[in-house]
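Protocol check, entry for the methods section draft. Step 1: assemble the input record (protein sequence plus ligand SMILES). Step 2: submit for complex structure prediction. Step 3: store the structure tokens unaltered in the notebook. Ligand used here: pyridoxal-5'-phosphate. Step 1 record:
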Amino acid sequence: MHKVDFEMVEMTLDVMKYAIGRITHPAPELGKPKKEEELKTLVGETITPDGIGGERAFQLFKEVLIKATVPIDHPRHLAFVPASPTRAAVMFDLVTSASSIHGAYWMEGAGGIFCENEAMKWLVSLTGLPKGSFGVFTSGGTAANLSAMVTARENWRKNPENVNKKGLIITSSGAHSSVKSMAKVIDCDVLLVETEEQMTAEALSDSIITLDAQQRDRLFAVVATGGTTNAGIIDDLSGIAEICGAENLWFHVDAAYGGGALASKSARPLFHGIEKADSITIDPHKWLFSPYDCGAIIYKNPELAKEAHSQEGSYLEIFKDEGAHGFNPSDYQIQLTRRVRGLPLWFSLAMHGTDKYSWAVDQGIGLANLAGQLIRKHPLVELVREPSLSCVLFRRKGWLPQDYTHWTYKNHREGFALVTPTKYRQKGVYETVARFCFINPDTTEKDISMILDSMALKDVV
Ligand SMILES: Cc1ncc(COP(=O)(O)O)c(C=O)c1O
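Step 3, stored output:
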């Protein structure tokens, strides 16, 4: 398996040919899932004692399996938070794999970690956090939020009075599900500020006031959102920062999706106050055009993260030795062995320069505004709220929830687009609506118009 032979060289060429074809394709086929039984019937047994051979396995992948996946960078994939890795970043993902770098400790990964850190310096500079702030790349926003929450909780527990207390955090109902999920992982309670819009300083203060003495004692952090996943809403970061300062609470900003917009001159002021955060999540695999998976967690005081995350072990001691001196990414988040997942971002940034990143993010914001204009003019649809960052919520007049579902499936089935519905709450009532999230700068006005026109169909079933 580890030998270099003719078959291996041929396979390398095949893989390269496939990768070049995929990387240069402007709009790869929008695949759709099949049931597991169907896929099994189509591909048969692939894991056998003797192996089916690389050629056969690759053929099955190209002819069957890849067609059962959605390319996240399709210009009419506007569902969830899509992605659109730059071609340079994708190419360097191949290089990252081929280089087999262990990204946990400087001793083994110095050159790769150096590159990650160069990219990280740019990311940190976008936040406006003070000198000394720094971060590491994680597997995504969930891992970044968890790493921050562990750091916050451990910092709070430095006070011996808090050691045996169950922690409590406050966030908003619009916060990402991962915040609530990760609170379960660290076994802390969550109090939600109920709002479909921005979490304001006033609403936060009101909810702190409602806490009884025991709850107030357990409260150690507030998680604000820098761009909600559903609607692109940014909490009142400045006001929340002030309260966290006054109440001695850890201030975490989850900007996993919206953080890319820090690179946009026009959007940057919306994040006023983020520079006062104790920790910030930003996912380059969302709006900074990195391939999966690449999240990031940034700390105002990285030493606190190190105290919380640094792992001890006899076989790890050498990494901490003077001779191995350098930055060890594993000390600052939950993962030990790690891919140098910031490398593709570094290469793409180095190749293109940061201005092009600002341009590409602005395109996403521009597309959302353009969609807003097209929706206003279209007889069948109307805006549910003004576009925010690159998210647009709109309704098809007269449609029931099931109509949105059928429309989504029809467009997907036909390989035309993936646009999914969501829910939006107004005056306490949830409404099913359609949602666009723009990331790919190659999405066009025509793409948007065609999708809106597809809502004319009556026979969507
Ligand atoms: C605001 C926010 N936070 C966290 C996450 C979770 O990120 P990941 O899926 O990379 O773990 C998401 C994902 O969409 C998000 O939008």
